[in-house]
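@channel sequence for tomorrow's demo:
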Amino acid sequence: MNKKIIILAIIIIILTFGLSGCIEEKTKFIGTWRTNLGIMIYTFNEDGTYQGAATSGAYEIKDGRLICTSGSFIRMYEYEFMNDDNTLILNGLGGAASYTLTKQVD
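structure tokens (generated this afternoon):
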């Protein structure tokens, strides 16, 4: 019985540490972002939805990439946060455009 409890505790610890990175990374996206030209605005919500200038849908962070889905429309980006997580650089994959975004401060 003690062996099962120890194994279960180890699994819980591994899952906790493994998932915490994804959750923490996702919180960096939450908020409203403006392009460097100030033309487009993107809002990423806590519930995994986003609103863009021309589209809205769901987003997720998977394998170090931002994946935005709107119906059958899917865009993937490699991303990098800079400037204390207030600048977000999105490098479009598969034909998606690239953006530099600045987080709006309320």
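heads up for whoever presents: The mean pLDDT is 83.
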